[in-house]
Amino acid sequence: MQNKNGLFITIEGVEGVGKSTNIETIKQFLAGRGIEFIVTREPGGTLWSEQIRNLLLQVNDDEDLMGLSELLLIFAARAQHLDRLIRPALAAGKWVICDRFTDATYAYQGAGRGLDRSKIAELETLVQEELRPDLTIILDLDPQIGLQRAQNRAALDRFEREKLEFFEKVRQAYLDIASAEQERCIVVDASQDLEAVSSELLIRLEEKLSLLQKDD
Fold first, then answer.
1. Helices 47-57 and 67-81, axial angle in degrees (round to 10)
2. pTM for this structure?
């Protein structure tokens, strides 16, 4: 089936929570039901946005990137991403699965970097207008475990090199967001085995699909 309105699903969590693996579960779920969808990521998703992503992730020991500069780059990438990919897909009735979105900005740049949330909110309104995710899946995991996983998979990028305290703030920010917006957000314990995590994800998606069918 294809719902007339696209659904915007975002996947969030600290490093090493298994977002990529669980996105595959979501893809299989949607494909099995004939739902047209795209998968994208933030920062990134378009040619310009991916170039900004590369700037944000690259390690440069000669000059630190200011927190405000980081924030503005992220929203520049997001503006391009929304205009060129996300909004057109949703308007065409496709579901959009996005690896991180603005909740990550509140968690990483807000809580992690200590930037004023009101500045993030202003940029959120400017860039997104009324658009917000329909469903946000927060994969929750002890940051120490997540960082160990990240270290085992590849060379660390600029964010992954942050101290444990940084990621503890990020994790708490995600949990605070979930508590404040329970209708939109679900928290999944990513320390469970993969089968248990996938099972919980599928249950939540079934619930969301049932609600859409009722609305139709």
1. 160
2. 0.91
